[in-house]
Description:
- By secondary structure, the protein is an all-alpha fold.
- It has 11 helices and no strands.
- It has helices at residues 5-18, 21-24, 30-48, 53-70, 76-90, 95-120, 127-133, 140-145, 147-156, 164-183, 186-208.
- Helix 4 runs parallel beside helix 6 (95-120) and helix 10 (164-183) runs antiparallel to helix 11.
- The chain starts with a helix and ends with a helix.
Amino acid sequence: LGASGAVRASSVLLCGLCTPLAFYSQTVLEITVASALLGVAALLALVSLKKESASAFALLCAAGLLAGLSAAFREEAYLVSAALLFALAFCGAGWRRCLAFALFCGLAILPLWAFNIHESGSIFGLHAKIYATVGGNQTFWQKLLSLPGNAYFFLLKPQFGAPLLGRIVLAFPFLLALATGIYGNEFFRIIALGLCELETVANFFAQAL
């Protein structure tokens, strides 16, 4: 949220090329609406950091409400809303502003939970039956321990039979971007994001051809 213009611009390009955004934007699915609501919520949260108290609270209340409403379309919105809350706290929004965001997010989510529990017995609604089948008969801890393997599959195991060294090279720019996003300075963040964009553009055209 507090990044410079260059980093924000790079992030937009990565979102367009490194995610299914280009594909999903061609069809009106629930993820389109959820992404739009979360995008506006994130924008309002960002603007609130630069406003005075009254204006900031109004923006954060609206951001929380939109983030909560997005959960009606995609359950991933719970994670994004929590990430927005942590980002606000990390950027120095203060506990009162964070509380305003959380309260209005809850105002939108609680009626949804009540409806889902009444209809399906779970806060996740009908999708709960699908989620229950993920991982088969694995326990919670087994599913938790499988997360590193899932990360390996998506980051280091492309479907083209590349050797391990090639997989590491493919994943390196994104791991570097993650590391510099946490610890690095502005210059190294831009370099890391630039490498990600070059690799992604090359892969995008390779797939198109």
